[in-house]
Amino acid sequence: MGFKCGIVGLPNVGKSTLFNALTKTASAQAANYPFCTIEPNVGEVAMPEPRLNELAKIVGSKEIIPTRMNFVDIAGLVKGASKGEGLGNQFLANIRECDAIAYVLRCFDNDDITHVSNKIDPLDDLEVVETELMLADLESVEKRIPALEKKAKTGDKEAKQTLSLCLEAKKLLDDGKPARLFTPDAEDEKAWKMMMLLTAKKVLFVCNVDEDAVANGNDYSRKVEEYAKSHNAESVVICAQMEADLAALSDEEAAEYLEAVGMEEPGLNRLIHKGYDLLGLATYFTVGPKEARAWTIEKGWTAPKAAGVIHGDFEKGFIRAETIGYEDFVKFNGESGAKENGKMRLEGKEYIVKDGDVMHFRFAN
């Protein structure tokens, strides 16, 4: 389990360059004209996880298996996309299938790269994209309401619930606000998610700056950061072209490059981790001589549910989980040392798995 993040934005803002860097491929054609991405490109990316490498080193694991996630490079949206302009609705459908959306916003000046509006204003770009998604959501909600009202009158509980949520969404969308500003009650969360509203998805604003601004951002990116804070979203600053250049280097060359520009890690690592946190995901590990492996779960999952990510039988027949915190596993140089120092815990069915737990599940066949 990972997540599927759609990369969206206006044409020529650096979406495909970012995608190429993420996937370390050139499968998305990066060209200086609109709609160079004709079909959505899907790339599977390994989660950067230094802890996994450290665990493998301690145990002597032959294989290291990180958790993975999907990024989808979606063609540039333009004003009127919700009505079929540009490449329109087919791409709105691609966005609907994603768990989160990364809005790539142009935060750099470059006369050699055209902009569809002939001006650089990331907040204006963001408004164009978000407005199209809100219009698509509003159309979807308005189409559903009459049938739901009819069904709700018969006493159908599910229809009543969905109708109520549709009306809440419509209220926000009519005011020009994204659906993600509504927080459903716990009992409504599943129904809310099933509505698959584009603007209800978690959002990460990616400020694509030039290399000179990658360390501290610039005036453009600071405006986006302020906007994100006030709109229940996150932002991250990267230089897509620099990341693409880094992706083409060997590990040693990339390390030298990063040191030269004063960065500890690639900006893509920050982007991936931000997306991970945004979706409320966590990682636990299983380690042994054969393999060291990372597993993705949602924060708040119990031990049996986490075990089910490995295999359904682990969840059904769950007995207990032998658990060692990552810090203790490293500090005491593995399972034996952690046991000797009383750091291995036997956790039962109610245990909430913590990020970084090293686990071994006992289950009945």
Q: Over all CA atoms, what is the radius of gyration?
A: 23 Å
User: Mean of the pLDDT scores?
Assistant: 86
Low-confidence stretches: 26-38
- String of helices and strands: EHEHEEHEHHHEHEHHHEEHHEHHEE
Helix content bin: 40-55%
Largest β-sheet summary: 6 strands, mixed
The class by helix and strand makeup works out as: alpha/beta
Number of helices: 14
For the record, give the distance between the C-alpha atoms at the N and C termini, rounded to a whole number. Answer: 24 Å
Strand order of the largest sheet: 2-4-1-5-6-7
Globular, elongated, flat, extended or rod-shaped: what is the shape? flat
The proportion of residues in beta strands is: 15-25%
Number of strands: 12
Structure description:
The chain is α/β, with parallel strands linked by helices. Helix content is 40%, strand content 19%. The chain has 14 helices and twelve strands. A six-stranded mixed β-sheet has the order 2-4-1-5-6-7, with helices on both faces. A three-stranded mixed β-sheet has the order 3-9-8. A hairpin with a 3-residue loop joins strand 8 (281-287) and strand 9 (291-298). Helix 1 packs parallel to helix 8 and helix 4 packs antiparallel against helix 5. The chain is flat. The two termini are 24 Å apart. Residues 26-38 have low confidence and may be disordered.
